[in-house]
Amino acid sequence: MIRIVLADDETMVRAGMRAILSADPAIEVVGEAADGAEAVALVGAHLPDVALLDVQMPGTGGLEATEAITGRFPGTAVVILTTFSEDAYIARALSGGASGFVLKTGDPRELVAGLHAVAKGGAYLSPEIAHRLIAELRGTDRMARGTAARERVGRLSARERDVLALITEGLSNEDIAERLGIVPGTVKVHVGSILTRLDARNRVQAAILAYEAGLIAGGPSAPER
């Protein structure tokens, strides 16, 4: 069972999200909050698998709540609910340790898929958000970012690069283990090493670095192996 704390200041939005999530028998909403501070308190009380947070809320918003949750409750992953008009918040949410981003106006199946992926230790970006983020990266000092990313990815072993490439697909440790024919415990060790060597807080940050380094189709030229 995936246990969720849901936070949004709009009652109707929370009701809609709850209805979507309740349709999945593998998901249980264990707490609801109208602001970030309440969400942090509920996470501390319930220690859920995932906190699903609106990016903007009165008082303590989703960004501040993300930083508090990932700092104090590392066992709880954070998925951010956002809109196209809030692209500017994604970078801060990434640095705060968010593991997923889902559009409020997107397909409900994306929300459910994202929660499942993040709860299993993966990462998730709604396709529309991923495309916009990649487009933004292409337009912001691409050469310098690519050079820096290739230098960081160059610290990885060949196997760690294989694991990183699969992380970019949003796969969990179990899925990566199956794809590579190794045990999940070994994947966990590789992921920890990758995050340390890349100086990335989570799998989403690592995936972005992989794009900038050229490990994902459409990115700058890939580093030599």
From TrEMBL:
SUPFAM superfamilies: C-terminal effector domain of the bipartite response regulators (SSF46894), CheY-like (SSF52172). SMART domains: HTH_LUXR, REC. Residues 3-119 form the Response regulatory domain. This is LuxR family transcriptional regulator. One of its GO terms (molecular function) is DNA binding. Keywords: DNA-binding, Phosphoprotein, Transcription, Transcription regulation. GO terms for biological process: phosphorelay signal transduction system; regulation of DNA-templated transcription. Residues 149-214 form the HTH luxR-type domain. The modification 4-aspartylphosphate is found at D54. The keyword Ligase does not apply. Pfam families: GerE, Response_reg.
